[in-house]
Amino acid sequence: MYVNLPMAEEIMRVIIIGAGEVGYHIAKKLSDEKKDVVLIDTDPAKIRRIGEHLDIQALLGSGTSPQMLRTAGIQEAKLLVAATDSDEVNLIACLLARSLNRYAVKIARVRNQEYLQEQSLFSQDVLGVDLIINTQNMMVKTILDLIEIPGASEVIDFVDGAVKLVSVLISQDSPLAGKTLRELGTHSRSLLIGAIVRGHRIIIPSGKDTIHPLDLIYLVVKKSEVSATLAHLNMPTRPAKNIIIVGAGGTGMAVAQALDKPSLNVRLIDQDGEKCKIAAARLDHVITIKGDGTDRDLLQEENAGDMDLIIALTGDEECNVLISLLGKELGTRRTITRVSKLSYMHIVSAIGLDTVINPRMSAARAILQHLRQGRILSVAPLREEQAEAIEAEALETSDIVNTPLSELNFPSGAILGAIVRGDEIIIPRGNTVVLPHDHLIIFAMQQVVSQIESLLTVKLEYF
User: In terms of Cα–Cα distance, which of 328, 339, 383, 343 is closest to 251?
Assistant: First the structure.
């Protein structure tokens, strides 16, 4: 039968359980987008903080209480996000939500790797969880992608990894420095720039925009062409071989295990003797060192100046920043720094560190996919989340298909960066026509995302 889908402007109710770093950040983002957000937490201080800073409804209580979920409006909710520090609370909340509203999308933050191995637990017949968020696994994948593409500050997969969104910092001697996008299009029709970060500002570029030294640009590149593209930009293309990891916690150990190969020179440093013993027993080729990663003499002894990469993954973000700065001073070619507070990210980038990874942005990216209207396949918040890169499938009855782009009411502040049609990446022009089932990569400022959703939303859909 035919069913009218909700229009993009309809207010969506979202229930978030847990007002920690992840829950608070998601609530703030959704509140900024004028979503109807209800947040539940057992800590009165966190509830007061929510009331003072966010325009949402905050309830003191447990997300595992059926009555509390009813009070929060679970029957009308489109989405429930369980993001407390307890996996068990998150999973029980999703189970209760499944009973009270079978049609709500349920997202659970789960950190215990043992649970993650039991995929059948999350099925609709058991817990009914639609999406599992594990920030550790997300960060490990991010780090491994960055090691594989050494010139990149950020790597995001689209079209199941066949297309990559790669951000690179423009140096003074870059062949792109001082060029307008129109000039670049004349010389290299395959170079596709979707966004420019300049200081704290994100620019969705047009042909007349000029690339400046120290700009961070986002390139859309086929996986098979990444090395050639980086070489064209005079950037390194050889994956890192000599690596220091500081921090043997869950993320650090997972990265070390992924890099535990005889072809690599990897060292793992941690102050905790017990963690070092466990690491030494589990790792065959990675050298484990007990010591303080913020000790300049220790880093010097471990030849940090000759290393391709230092990855700072301790639980203390100030220590991570110091470790990376020391590495850069000693001559380390590149650093990856874990920073949990979003407010620190632009400061850390400004003081000269290469790549900053943030677990909350990873969680937000996964959740945004379930909030966007239309056939959204992937959403990637860009620097400081002022803009998004969106991968969407063009459906037959959406406004964006079968019409030349020049005739579409495409909002200012957004650009259709690329069309992926089979194995081909098409750089759109004014006379380009989007066909049904094309994959679209769209860059949009936060304030115009709802207008993009309207273009992508179907009028009717079969069920």
Answer: 339
Q: Which distant-in-sequence residues (6+ apart) come within 8 Å of 37 by Cβ? A: 13, 14, 15, 16, 27, 30, 31, 54, 56, 57
Q: Are 382 and 389 in contact (CB under 8 A)?
A: yes
Cα angle for residues 389, 390, 392 (degrees, 5° grid): 160
Give the H or E element holding residue 254: helix 250-258
Residue 222 tokens read as: 């086929």
**226, HSE (Cβ side, Cα atoms, 13 Å):** 25
3-class secondary structure, 15: strand
Which tens digits make up the pLDDT trace of 287-332?
Answer: 999 999 999 999 999 999 999 999 999 989 899 999 999 999 999 9
Q: Tokens for 153?
A: 């500050």
Query: What distances in angstroms separate CA 430 from CA 189, 207, 266, 410, 416, one per listed residue?
Result: 15, 12, 50, 11, 11
How many residues make up the chain in this entry? 463
The per-residue pLDDT for range 322-335, each reduced to its tens digit, is 999 999 999 999 99
In sequence order, what are the residues at sequence separation of 6 or more whose Cβ sits closer than 8 angstroms to the Cβ of residue 131? 105, 106, 107, 108, 366, 367, 370
Cross-sheet strand order for the sheet of 424-426: 376-381, 387-393, 439-445, 414-421, 424-426
Read off the pLDDT of residues 421-440 as tens digits, 9 standing for 90 and up: 988 888 888 899 999 999 99
Give the residue among 305, 349, 308 at the shortest CA–CA distance from 327.
305
356 and 349 Cβ atoms separated by less than 8 Å: yes
Q: Taking all residues of the chain, what is their mean pLDDT, rounded to a whole number?
A: 86
Query: Comparing C-alpha atoms, which of 148, 191, 142, 195 is closest to residue 382?
Result: 195
Report d(CA 104, CA 42) in Å as an integer: 23
Closest CA to 155 of 317, 363, 389: 389
Q: How far apart are CA 150 and CA 330, in angstroms?
A: 19
Residues contacting residue 120 through CB under 8 Å, at least 6 positions apart: 126
Residue 452 CB-density burial (10 A; 0-12 exposed, 13-18 middle, 19+ buried): buried
- How does DSSP classify residue 225? G
Helix (H) or strand (E) holding 325: helix 317-330
The token pair at 39 is 């947040």
pTM over cut 0.85: no
Q: What angle do CA 74, 364, 125 make, to 5 degrees?
A: 45
CA distance 89 to 85: 8
